[in-house]
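Let us begin with a simple case.
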Amino acid sequence: MGKDLHTVIRLAKYEVDEKRRALGEILEREHQIEQAQAHIEAQRDHEEATARADPVGVGMSWGNYVRRYMAERDNLAAMLASVREAVEAAREELAESYRRLKTYEQAQAARDRRAQEELNRKEQTALDEMAQNMVRRRGEGGGTL
């Protein structure tokens, strides 16, 4: 790699942002499934209350409803398990991208620090040389500045 990691850092930041967006989308899907679960539970409670209030009128349709409810509940539970696995995978990918970004940033900071130290050393050498020249001139001229 060259002396400058700024381009790599910029790309790594973009990757981290993309991973965050992807995780956000998966978390939103998880939230939607949880809401759907809550909705079918509330709907079941309502249907059950209706069935208790009029057991004769609901009768045969209650069994069909319960079968549909159980199938939908199981389907949502499977979807939620799958989405939660995806959330975990997305979090791991995001963490890895973030670690990579931090490694690049630390490497660039170390390079910047070494470059600044080298610049300071060169400036100090130049100042020392100027001071030596001034002292030499004083000695040669035998007087003051």
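The second case is a distinct protein. As before, the sequence precedes its structure tokens.
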Amino acid sequence: MQWPERLRYVAVEGPIGVGKTSLARLLATHLECELLLEDPGANPFLASFYDEPERHALATQLFFLFQRIDQVRQVQQGDLFRSTTVADFFFAKDPLFAQLTLSDGEFALYRKIHDHLAPQAPVPDLVIYLQASPRVLVERVRRRGIGYERGVTEAYLSKLSEAYTRFFHEYDAGPVLVVNSERLNFVDRPEDFRLLLRRITEMRGTREFFSLGP
């Protein structure tokens, strides 16, 4: 099936453990295009954040903020007409994590910095928003066994999922495909990935939904 010409910059989003990086990799491989991935392992504050969130939240969040803006600066408007870029993050969503972890004063400082940088970030032509229940997210996080994620709790993932839901309920800057990923396995079941590709190519509205099962 033909990839829509209009989709030159696609962001895959969703809470920790939902599978956004795996899907972004599959899309980039299928399209033979540029891939932008978050690099949490490069954040020197992340492991300390999971151990002592209040102490290390601001440093962790600012590191990610600057890392992400440096990456999306690569997606220049002129390049969008020559090749597709797929990313496993979405710059506009960055405050979502910050608001959950920072104090009011820290968030005010963070917000000033974010708002100063935001005009440099292009808006995706499509955001694929992956959803799953906190229980499923915890199972997936445990299964992948990343050391610094040992402290991620179901309560935190529940708050994070709710924050994502609120964010995308209000988001109207571009098209969003909301995907319930609980019954989908894009990595191990190629037919699921093909179904998603077909759903993307058939999109006509600015907000649509895709899921399997009841």
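DSSP finds eight helices and six strands in the chain. The longest strand covers residues 126-131.
Keep these points in mind for the review questions at the end of the chapter.
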